[in-house]
Amino acid sequence: MPNTLIHTIEIYKLYIPLKEPFVISLGPINEVQNVVVVIRTSDGFTGWGECSPYMTINGESIDTCFIVGQYLAKALKGRNALDLEHCSSVMDGIIYANTSIKSAFDIALHDIAAQHAGLPLYRFLGGEKKKVIQTDMTVSIGTPEKMRADAIRFTTKGFPAIKVKLGESKEKDVARIKAIREGIGNEIPLRIDANQGWATADEAIEVLKALAPYDIEHCEEPIPRWRFMELGKVSAASPIPIMADESCGDDHDAERLIQLNACKMLNIKLGKSSGFLKAKKIVQLASNAGMHLQIGGFMESRLGMTAAAHFALLHDSIEHYDLDTPLMFAEDPVEGGIVYGEKGVVEVPEVVGSGARVKEEYLRGAERVMV
């Protein structure tokens, strides 16, 4: 195996304001709080990674990622950056879970490996540019009037699908979808995401049946993820196809859901899977099972979303793209990387590696540590 040794690792806290609060059933997000990992090798390669920890989903915060990242950095320093499986095993051997911060390291290591191979990241991963990536745009929870106005605005901009955050009572959620459909008509696909908001399988089934007349493409994570044994019941009774999100973190979760015949689709996020290595295993498992996939994220900047977009080109089974969060930022801290075109088109850079990095002015004043 080729060899390029990890020389230094830098970890930064990145705070970015949003244009407006982003609200889901698990609570509001008022500011982006991400962690950037920069890995430098002894022979001059630099890899960039980012994670967006989500306390109520992956149990991590910007502070825990900053601390745990130092444990990971000390363990990885001096190791071969190109031995991706070994580096992943080292991180798993240091600490259980903590998938968000592990993903930032994994993304940075893959960036280095792709650069070393002289390939764009998507090609290094095994993907091809044979499809157009178009992201949906998300409407967060609010009044029916506000959600309708947001949906109309996104539809006017040509996004191919509107994703709607739900997860409260049947009455409130039906009123929201009714208002949105009245505003945008019936031509644009609607996707809904309850973020575990409906407390039981029976409640979820009741709400999903009430929403069926509004032509919903699919529903993400209708019930609490710890009720995964009941997700199959929801899927069997729901007129709307079910996509697992919070209940599908890594490849072990995916294998369990597939064995349970729990859902028709899976939502892959690098911050849940610990990065590319385990996400690729999810794709293989889902492909073998004939399942459809979505690639999404948390609140990553264009750095993290560039990594996700490269991954989206990996396989034909990845059909849905939820890569919209950088469009919610009040500032763009990234240079290079993906470009958002008209109608939600996401252009993946044809450069060696991922092609994205954080602008120096955002790193200069950030809290950081170097190992």
Automatic annotation (TrEMBL):
Cofactor note: Binds 1 Mg(2+) ion per subunit.
Keywords recorded for this protein, A-Z: Isomerase, Magnesium, Metal-binding
Family membership: Belongs to the mandelate racemase/muconate lactonizing enzyme family.
Keyword Metal-binding tagged: yes
Record: residues binding Mg(2+): D193, E220, D245
Biological processes annotated in GO: peptide metabolic process
Record protein name field: Dipeptide epimerase
Cofactor: Mg(2+)
SUPFAM superfamilies recorded: Enolase C-terminal domain-like (SSF51604), Enolase N-terminal domain-like (SSF54826)
The keyword Metal-binding belongs to this UniProt entry's keyword annotation: yes
Record-annotated Mandelate racemase/muconate lactonizing enzyme C-terminal domain positions: 144-241
EC number: 5.1.1.-
Residues at the catalytic site: K165, K269
InterPro entries in the record: Dipeptide_epimerase, Enolase-like_C_sf, Enolase-like_N, Enolase_C-like, Mandelate_racemase_C, Mandelate_racemase_N_dom
GO MF, one annotated term: magnesium ion binding
